[in-house]
Amino acid sequence: MNVAVVESELNNAFEQLAGIGPAVSVFGSARIANTDPLAKQAQQLGRLLSDNGFNVLTGAGPGIMQAVNQGAFAGSSLSIGLNIELPKEQKANPYLDKCIMFEHFFTRKVVLIKQADVCIFFPGGFGTADELLEVLTLVQTRKGRQVKLCLFGRDFWTPLINWFRTLSSLGYINQTDLDLFYIVDTPDQLMDYIKE
To answer: What are the boundaries of each domain within the chain?
Structure first.
């Protein structure tokens, strides 16, 4: 890994995003079809966020990311994608006011988290789980900004929450750590929480 490249990526991204105002980063599966009901909810949420003055950041890819960007792009605030260069190129979705390229996953993750006032997690795979646990750890240890964390889709996230409860019962995390996130099932519920 080239330290100069990492530094350059971070500096470039923070320079391009300087002063953008309130922002929400949305994470979720790239493998969900745009006809999936979850994608429809993500698109609705993107529009609500954008029309309520939040700039919306995603990983710029397909699936949940594209759906959220599509909704935000139609709204009144910025739809921003942080795209990653992969061996099998990930093409940025077409619903972006701004697209910033990254070579490294971790630098992209740093920017998505650092720029956010709220982090929203839709159902997803390993990447989404990695991002969620990173944010939870940063908030728990107070090593990052104290952002709001929202999990979208109670049925999907309940098994993970039950595992967190097991961790708490074993003393591996505190009971209060279970209050670091909020679970919602609809875009309206999520907006109500964010507006509090």
So the answer is: 3-195
List pLDDT tens digits, range 86-116: 766 578 999 999 999 998 889 999 999 999 9
Q: Which amino acid, one-letter code, is at 40? A: K
**Tally of CA atoms within 13 A in the half-sphere of 68 that contains its CB:** 33
Assessment of whether the complete model's pTM goes beyond 0.90: yes
| CATH no. for 3-195 | 3.40.50.450
C-beta separation of 68 from 52 below 8 A: no
37-51 vs 64-73: helix crossing angle, rounded to 10: 40
Q: Which is nearest to 96 in space by CA: 66, 128, 52, 53? A: 66
Residue with tokens 């972006």: 96
Are the C-beta atoms of 21 and 53 separated by less than 8 Å? yes
